[in-house]
Amino acid sequence: QLQLVESGGGLVQPGGSLRLSCAASGFTLDHFGVGWFRQAPGKEREGVACISSNDDTQYYADSVLDRFTLSRDYAKNTVYLQMDSLKPEDTAVYYCAAKWPLFGSTCLREEYLERWGKGTLVTVSS
Description:
The protein has strands spanning about 5, 10, 20-25, 35-40, 45-50, 60, 70-75, 80-85, 90-100, 115, 120-125. It is mainly β. Strands 2, 4, 5, 6, 9, 10 and 11 form a seven-stranded mixed sheet that branches. A hairpin with a 4-residue loop joins strand 7 (about 70-75) and strand 8. The radius of gyration is 13 Å and the shape is globular. The mean pLDDT is about 95.
C-alpha cells in the first residue's frame, strides 16, 4: 500500500520547537517532490515548505521563512520539517504530500501534489 504518514505533532509553547516527519511506505521518496501544508481552524489549507524533485531546491512560505527547515533522510525514506520559534499562528493540522516529478515552486501548490498523508496536529499555546 502506497502511503505517507506524518508524525511529530503535539502541544508546544510559543518559542518552542517541533520536528515533523513524513514517512513513505510502499514507494521510495527519492526524487519525489515533497510538500508540507497546513490547515488552521476556519482557514484554507496553505503551502508551508517544499522540496522539488529535480534539484532538491527548497521553497518556504514567507510566514515560516528562517524558522522552518526541510531535510531528507534517504535511508529512512522520510522527509522532516524542523519548526523553530513557533508562534500561536502556526497552530494547524500539518500534512505532507508528494509527487514525481515536481518542479520548482509548484511544490508549494496543493493542486500539483498527488499523494497525501492524513495529517498531524500542531498546537502552539502557553
